[in-house]
Write a structure and sequence with these properties.
64% of the residues lie in helices and 3% in strands. It is mainly alpha-helical and 423 residues long. The chain has one domain. The chain has a 3-stranded antiparallel β-sheet with strand order 1-2-3, with no helix packed on it. The longest helix is centred in the C-terminal third of the chain and has 34 residues, at 302-335. It starts with 27 loop residues before the first helix and ends with a helix. Mean pLDDT is 85; it is low at 1-20, 26-34 and 409-423.
Length: 423
Amino acid sequence: MADRTVTHGRTGPPGSAPRPHLRLVRLEDTVGPARDPVAQARRNLALLLGPTAALTVVGLVMILSAGSISAVEGYGTSFWYFNRQSLYAVAGVVALVVAARMPLSFWRRAALPMLLLLLPVMLLTLHPTVGSSLYGASRWIDLGPVTLQPAEIAKLLTVCAVAGILSRPWKDLSRPRDVLLPTAPLVVVVAGIVMLQRDLGTTLIICGSVFLLLFTAGVRYRHLFLGALSGSLATAYLVFGTAYRRARLLDAWLRWESDPSGAGWQLRQGLIALGSGGWFGVGLGNSRQKWDYLPNAHSDFVFAILGEELGLIGAIAVLCLFGALLFAGIRIAVGARDPFGRLLAAGITGWLGLQILVNLGAVTGLLPITGVPLPLLSFGGTALVVALAGIGVVAGVALDTARHPEGRSTPTGRGRPASRAAR
């Protein structure tokens, strides 16, 4: 049988009845020669967890190196950031294991209620006695020795909730009403609260992840185009309608060379760090930019320090690890046994990939600086724990496929054999 990708509204020959589908699924994956789904799921799981472990270790090493100077100045010990991130990494590994062992039915049922319960917690960040602010954004809740960033949790729960909504069997994604309700009100409320925290970067990540989910689910291209157009206009209004965002876009990104000692300082120092690394870097721990030249060297701009100390070879190696991680997520999504598992794995993979793209774009000057952390590498406890938990959910999809190879359904999720439907 010829290699055909499932097109919108149809999976069979011309004249067959329209059926729901996922763009991510190819007919060759369900109609072609028999494969061992258990062995394939295990390979995908190994491909997912290997880069995750390597990137987490690299992140701890780079946080120790990049944050050592600011840690000594602020807390009296160069290990302060490293110690905290190590504790969060342990918590993240526990979250990964727990999330991987959860049945997919749990995420289908519980994601939306958990997200609704999280919304009041997100509003607490705006309270002056509970929330804490940094760089003009109110994103964190002080809990004594630790801080919580609820918007990071909202990224994962929003993806899980929207995946559950779009995979409902009575949804006809060719109709705008079924696409918008209740997805649009839910996303608008979550994004609106994040915007109240003055965090445009996280808002774009959440909305972009939902857009990728809609694309994967098979929403019509014209509806996607209208959604993208509306989102672009709203983003332009939020950027150009606010003085500090407009200055960040124009002066700190497009015209940073005109004020390299002011608005363009961070981008300039980041590019200097990347350019100073050469092929093999200046050596681990020998960065010069971390000596108070590059702001947020251990958080948003940790990749610049990595490029300086490990060089182009080290930077490419890390990019390859990210590529392997995302590739594993896509393979797990394609091999999932039902539409919800496919959307869940695809949505989380899209969220991580989008966040990687936005952070690296900011560090290299290809995109404006938005304050979005680099998954698994940047300093940030909540971000690390949530990213590992999200990877655990994707691992749970792979484990579900391995546990129930006989229950792998067709792209419609209705249990009909794909070969019979395609005849």
